[in-house]
Amino acid sequence: MFNTLQDRLDKAFSILKGHHKITEINIAKTTKEIRRALVEADVNYKIAKTFTDNVKEKALGQGVLKSVQPGQMLVKIVEDELRDLMGGEVASFQISGNPAVILIAGLQGSGKTTFTHKLAHWAKSKKGKSPLMVAGDVYRPAAIDQLASLGEKIDIPVFYDKENKSPVSIAKAGIDFAKKNGHDVVIIDTAGRLAVDEVMMTEIKDVKRAIQPQETLFVVDSMTGQDAVNTAEAFNHNIDFDGVVLTKLDGDTRGGAALSIQYTVGKPIKFASSGEKVDSIDLFHPDRMARRILGMGDIVTLVERAQQDFDEEEARKVSKKIAKNKFDFDDFMGQLQQIKKMGNMKDLLSMMPGMGKALRDIEISDDAFKKVEAIMQSMTAYERANPDSLDGSRRKRLAAGSGNSIQEVNRFIKQFEDMKKMMRKMQGGGNAKMMRSMMKSRR
To answer: What is the CATH number of the domain that holds 81?
Structure first.
């Protein structure tokens, strides 16, 4: 995401290369490029102009720091301004109450139903809640079946009534059901339309008035750019929502929605969602997003994901085995599973500073480990526990069993042995040591 914007900002910062100080002339050229970059990212011109005026004022007001190059100083100023433009701090999200009621609104196709089930999973897995999803879309064909199917996949119940065509009574009945069955969070999916219309707005206003939700979230497709901002204004005027959810941030988006919504409607972005996986939502962090836009990576989010998904006790056991040179294919398989749980590989790698641009045109499939997993799954329990037992005949059998060539099997085993040597040299074990040290740094 934000690839074009990142390139244009890099071009703007390059104007200051070779300069020893910021002047009226070079900052004017630089901010003109920044403004052009924002407008091309579908940011409203007025917002872009205000943004660059602030940058210019702060840049010219800075004392000359001998240890900092003008370009570095400007990057820091732009980072701070981007953070403030997107809200400054992480917005609070109210999930208390008995039950806490969350109303989901937005246009058809914005990703409301998918977000509803992601939020339910988030509430259950991250907050220890017992959520109930309510299917309040009485118009879209198969909307109820879609939510029911998603709920089944994550073992979270869905309340629905296919005979009832009143969104208000369905929402109220869902809340009553939650109270009777011990659900402490109720997430109500609502109907959307292809465009903003009075009937839809009245319907959502009626639902909100009837149930008095703790949170009303407006879900918007970030790929629609300035249209997303205009829609947000219309919804906010009618239903006074509490926060915004940006979906499809992994798409080919120019970034205008993320950079403009908070400024325009005065309501915070509360969640960011990308991809189809159920765990691909995060609370929105303006500071982290600003750093990612500028190509600085997002180490904090990477560490948090490691904390959530990495088994420290298992890491300790693996570390001991590495120290004794006993690391085997079962251990390696376990480590792969831990890494895969953290999310999309390309997304994870792009969180490393400087990696986003390097990986831009490289396809990294979620099935990147499929070949080596097939090889290990073709091994017997004895072979996985005893890597040295893999002689020529065994390797030939592994190639046939895994659908790989003998050369590919040999290459993988060689890489495994090289990795073992490297991990042992690190004394404590590559991935395990890295994950443990990252987790300690967050305590």
So the answer is: 1.20.120.140
% of the chain exceeding 90 in pLDDT: 32
Give the range of the structural domain holding residue 235, as residue numbers without chain letter. Answer: 100-295
Shared domain check, 308 and 329: yes
Are 149 and 65 contained in the same domain? no
Structure-token pair, residue 311: 């088994």
Burial 157-169 (b: 16+ CB within 10 A, else e): bbbbbeeeeebbe
Q: Strand 243-247: give its sheet, edge to edge.
A: 158-159, 131-136, 185-190, 100-106, 215-221, 243-247, 269-273, 281-283
Strand partners, 132: 186
Confidence band (pLDDT; 50, 70, 90) for 107? confident
Q: Which residues contact 118 (CB under 8 A, 6 or more apart)?
A: 273, 278, 279, 280, 281
| DSSP 8-state symbol, 144 | H
Q: What share of the chain has pLDDT > 70, as a percent?
A: 79
Same domain, 334 and 241: no
Q: What pLDDT does 10 receive?
A: 83
Q: From CA 186, how far away is CA 82, in angstroms rounded? A: 34
| pLDDT tens-digit map of 397-423 | 999 999 989 999 998 898 888 877 776
The verdict on 168 and 71 lying in the same domain is no
- Judge if 78 and 107 occupy the same domain: no
Please write the tens of the pLDDT for every residue from 171-188: 999 999 999 999 999 999
Q: In b/e form, how buried is each residue of 92-120, taking b as 16+ CB within 10 angstroms?
A: ebebeeebbbbbbbbbbebbbbbbbbbbb
Do 266 and 126 reside in the same domain of the chain?
yes
pLDDT in tens, 186-216: 999 998 777 777 888 888 999 999 999 999 9
In a 3-state reduction of DSSP, which class is residue 190? strand
Report the alpha-carbon angle 304-309-315, nearest 5: 105
CA atoms of 295 and 67, how far apart (whole Å): 22
- What is d(CA 97, CA 115) in angstroms, rounded to the nearest whole number? 21
The answer to whether residues 267 and 330 belong to one domain is no
User: Residue 94: inside a domain, yes or no?
Assistant: no
Judgement on whether residues 110 and 143 belong to the same structural domain of the protein: yes
User: Average pLDDT, stretch 121-149?
Assistant: 89
Q: Of 295, 323, 356, which residue constitutes the final position of a domain?
A: 295
